[in-house]
Design goal:
This protein is α+β, with helices and mostly antiparallel strands. Helices cover about 20% and strands about 25% of the residues. It has 24 helices and 60 strands. Strands 5, 10, 13, 14, 15, 19, 20, 21 and 22 form a nine-stranded mixed sheet that branches. A seven-stranded mixed sheet has the order 34-32-37-35-36-39-38, with no helix packed on it. A six-stranded mixed sheet has the order 51-52-50-55-53-54. Helix 9 runs parallel beside helix 10. The longest helix has 25 residues. The chain starts with about 40 loop residues before the first strand and ends in a 37-residue tail after the last helix. The relative contact order is 0.07. The N terminus is likely disordered. This is Ubiquitin specific peptidase 40.
Length: about 1300
Amino acid sequence: MFGNLFEEEEEEGFASASSRGRAAKGGDEPPPPRGRSNLCGIKNQGGTCYLNSLLQTLLFTPEFREELFSLGPDELGCLEDKDKPGAKVRVIPLELQRLFASLLLVDQQSASTASLTDSFGWNSSEGTNQHDVQELNRILFSALEHSLVDTSGSTFIHRLYHGTIVNSIACKECGNVSQRQEDFLDLTVCVCGMSSLEDALWSMFVEEELFEGNNLYRCAQCDRLVTAAKSAKLKKLPPFMTVSLLRFSFDFAKCERYKETGRYSFPITINLQPFCEQTDGEESDYSYELFSVIIHKGGCYGGHYHVYIRDIDQLGQWEPPEEEYKLKSQKKGKEDFKKDVCEPKLQEDDPLSVLTAIIAQEPSKSVLLDQLGQKLMDKIGSSWSKKFRKHYGPIGKFLQSHSDVFMLVSNGTRVALKANPPSPVTEPPSPVTEPPGPTEQITNSDPSTPSDPGAADPQLEPKKEQGSHWFDLNDSTVTSIRESDIEKQFQGKESAYMLFYRKTQLHRSSEALNNAQYKVPLHLIHMAQEENIKLQHMREKFEATNNTVELRLHLATHYRLENGALQPINKEQDRSTTLSFDRRKTVGDLRLAIYQMLDQWEGDMALTMAKSLPAGLHLYNTIIDDGVSVYSAGLQTNSDLFVWNGREVCGATVLIGAEWEPVLLTVVRPHLGEDGIPEVEDGVGCEEGSGGFENEGTGLKKEARGFAGAATLGEVKEALGEPKESLLCQEHKGRKRAEQGAGEGGGASGWRLFPPDDMHRTLKELSLKDGDALLVLEPQSFDSSMFTLNGDVVTVTTPSDCRWLQVEFQQNGGEEGDKEEERKKVKVPATGNMLLCEVKHRAIEELQLQESLPGAQYCLRQVDCTGKLLPPVCEEMSVRDAGVRLMTTLTLCPGIAPKASQLFLHFSVGTAPSAGMEMDIIVESTCTVKECLKTMLDAVGLDGTCWHLRRLDWCEDIGEPIVDEDASLTELKINNGETLIVTEGQLPPKGFLKLSVWFYLDPRDNSMETDFNGHTEEQTLEVVTAGKTHSQSSPMYAGNMAELKSVGQVEISDEATLEDFKTQVMTLPSLQDVCLPTAAFMRVWQLEGQRLARILRGQHLTLRKLKLTSGTDLCVQQLLKEEDLGPKEVLLNVKMGVPGERCYYPPEELVWDASRDSSPRSLRTCLASHYGLSPDSLLLAKHQPEKHTWEEISNWNQQVSKKKKKKKTESLLGAPFHLKDGDTIGIKNLLIDNNRDFVTMEDQQGQQRLREQAEQRRKGGQAAGSDGVGPCKKTGITKSRKPEVALSINVGVFR
């Protein structure tokens, strides 16, 4: 039918159970039990919400469920034998039995349909393709009938759902009646053009279709064409009436499917006697009551299904839905309104009171829907969205839910009070009959006469809450609803799609009420009980595992206080004890368990939360309340718990709390070891060996010490045992090595001296943290060459044995294919002042390269973090000046090293180079771009002057050209190692644009035709102006098609202003005869795809700011008056409709200022001022030239939208209208024009052409329009949809 068009937009009810719970430690989380409703949902496999909704409906059809359960294994077989050869196992009904039993009896939130869909023969992809539920209903019934052949249940589908329609044709002359019977399992009724289910049934089974005029009927008895009447009646009524609503249709004008979202009401109880052939039975024979409504939310290409179901057997626990504030407000507002309607009492917190007062105070006793929001803001000083939307929803839905107070009048454009409706004198005229509005209610109807579409249905009598038992089953979620909630599904994107009625004669046994096991086979009950036991064990195991925490206990007898933290006495052993405990138990239970575990513990026991820090173990807060749970106390898995007496540890008082949190500092002191080997690397410690070099004999030693964070720096000095005159220094991390002063060598480091005031500040106040280094010096330490004091900065020079460079030789320049033996490494002693040429010479000597390759030239290159070789370093510089760090690696490669005045550059010809494919060149940094280009061309053997250089941009693509060829490389900031691209072609002018200029010829102005008659060589172009329709069959009228003439090209700087551009255009020879007093009399359009896209604004804006590039097509238009449009001023073509005719007066240009207000009300006010009319009398629409349709501008559709997350559209500059320059706005004056249809004869012809093109495409022919008829084809990429896949269920052969 519809294939898999219904892809789900959102799975509202689907959520995995594990996503809401805690992460399981002992395995997968078991499925959660049923919710408060005590009903089971169905898991969504990705796109099976349509299947879930239908299965729940069949489950809550007790007669269907009991007929299915009545079939035993002797007729259906056993699922265990389905794989045995020759066994006839009816898998589909067996799996359906198991699913129903699971939904009824197994204690889980949702059941899976995987086994059932497997029995259908569906693969994994079928679970993600959504289909039409009406199609599934027919296919599933057919599959069940085929599966139950030759069983006692072979006819139960026929008994429950089969009905008959008799179609009759009666001859008006001889009275002969020809009849034909038609069987149905579900009744398909029309939605389009109908207001209710009763209307649709009346049209199908009461009204007659006459064959007369040119449409006569050939009577078999008269043997000639005669006048006849065709009718249909229900002949046989089934116990269950399934009604399928035709919500989806095809629009031949737009060539696309669409969904009928208009209001379509249906009753809770219905009497079908007027629609039946035999009407002499009892009234109960024709009475049906609603028990299920399948709802579709979304459009025709995507959506989501869920179902409203009445629990007939009361298997679920129905609870009233949560009361919202609007229900209380509604009751209160009704009472106040009945007491005082004429002078309503205004309560600003009650929206019903506020809206009632606004409408009652209007002279006409009604308010335009578009103006209601603004009047509300004027009344209370706040908008509906800010004050009421959170609690009451959109204003349109609020009016709809209070239909006993408000009513729509004037064809749905105004709202009035029901108790005080507007009089015919004060009410604005309405040209058409008022359609059914949102005041209709769910009815218990007896349609003995056709329902009046203009009349409101009688209000539904309220039922007792205990008898409601309506539920919303949305995949895995089941919630209680009221019977009145069904009314909300009459219209909108979320609306009823299938209705299920049952005869009121069908009564349920008292044994079936509240009895889920009623008529369920015993073996299925046992299966469900076993499943419940299994689930209970899984949940108990999961809860036990998930609530067990593992605590690490630290006993005070194993620790001592040292360096401000608790340290284990025996550091070689881990003295913590692991205790597994249920976190749901109390702290008192935990204390008792620890007492039992420690038999020898004496005295009080304090449990204090601890944390292992770099300085040691620190205590925070002691748990005092034994009545709280372990979880509430903040204890989790791997929490540290210190067990002590609460006062001291090994005789030392322990300070607890975050303020005493210890900090582990590295204390550095000058030290001369016995062997002279320093212990500190880079000024702090050297953990590597000296590399075999001779030691100079001085160094530093480090010591890790912990101190309380609240201790002052003076207390730290005292704890270190240092004299008062000692100096403390902090490592100066923010200072660069190159700025630390001379003489520090390759491994020098800087330290900042603490001022005397810092001695009274704590370590936390000084922002000292774990791992920070603290240098302790005595005043005589500065006598050594190792320490230098410059202001408050102390420079420490490390020993020279830590100064070396590793040189790696790669013969092939570092290619990946080098063999390991071709890479030789050597360590060269070096200092920061050593020249790199000396480093290279020493490395060559160590590697003995002069002997193997005499006369070869080499250079030193650094390697980045990715392994890529950097440019060669200048060997005339020192290690420090070249930015080379000591104790790093340099690569020795074949090649020449640049001098200090030279640059090493990469270059490529034509394209951006790939890694390793560029060429290298060394040039002087003072040479010009032209000289550099000539050197590169000579290196590759190219001649000529048609070349220029370009740089690479940030994404390694060819960027902008280097325009100034006489500038030096230094002036252009071209750095060492940069890549340049040699590009063929002349150097383009700097910042100049070449723009093509066209002149706009208005078909309504013939004065310009003679001006261009002499220019026969000019190019012409026809463009569709925005918002105008092209009609080839008739002459151009009112500017349907604008003709453009090419007037030349303009070369202008991108820094020139728009006014400069206009001035230069006026000098073109082709425009000499055009009268343009100043540049302000010229309008400039930008062309995009043969359309006038936008007007360029801002006379003093540069062309660069207007985002113009070379090759852009611009169109100039002559004006009769000066124009300077603002950024939010929109130029519109407005056309007033001719009263009583399907055409318009010639269009006019109107400038609408949308800077302050871009709402429809602002545009309507502007047009009313332009034409001198009342804003309330104007009806506006925007023309869509590509579809030949008009889109009416109104806010009401957005206000009553059922999609709650969709915000109300207020700006015409945004969706869905997107008004822009040149759009056409149609206007209807409702005071004198009753025709609300904007479509003209030309629009109808265009729509006919679109239908013909669609028909040709459907037949596989070439699309019409190649000869220019119709609008230009869209060349954009359309959104691809999945191919339509037919829905099918595979059934075995059982005959």
